[in-house]
Amino acid sequence: MIPTIRRAAAYLTLAVTLVGAASISSASAAGVETLSTGAAPAAAAQNGIVVAQAGAPARRVSFTAEQADRGAKNYKRDCEECHGKDLRGGMNGGAPLRGLAFEGKYFGGLPASVLFGYMSSAMPPNSPGRYSPDTYADLMAYVLKWNGIQPGAPLPSDFDKLDELVVEK
Length: 169
Ligand code: HEC
Prior knowledge:
By secondary structure, the chain is mainly α.
């Protein structure tokens, strides 16, 4: 619903700008004094920004049950000793991976790439980045599941796609 409305608004803005540009050029052709040269590219650039913003993240992050199951196995083996069975953390200085403080950092509509980026570049501390992107996506699916995110479409493991998803319950 929301993405459709946003997209429609973007197209509307685009249409209005195009109509505006057309009337400027026809006015110039008619010899009427109008905007200085350079105004049209500026308007186009502005319009580009409007479209980019309007098409910005809107789809909620999700994952498949299979991803979360695979993540559970890796988590148990490589993360649990510090972050705990229930993800509340506390062992060996491991931070909680659920709860208000955690949500404050990674939820609230932030792109999914933020959490993925942290995990895949900093965890586990003794060999950060040691897994494949798919394995990090599995681990993230498991963490999201514990945080009350609903399963659905697969969680991607590619930054560009993760950028388009928002982390929200
Ligand atoms: C040796 C202990 C240890 C292990 C093993 C470990 N972590 Fe961590 N993890 C930490 C510590 C300590 C922090 C906090 C780091 C900081 O704040 O700089 C952390 C932070 C995190 C965070 C960010 C939490 C926040 O509040 O920002 C995530 C997500 C995370 N770990 C996921 C994982 C995953 C997934 C694994 C398994 C692949 C893993 N960790 C393995 C110790 C560990």
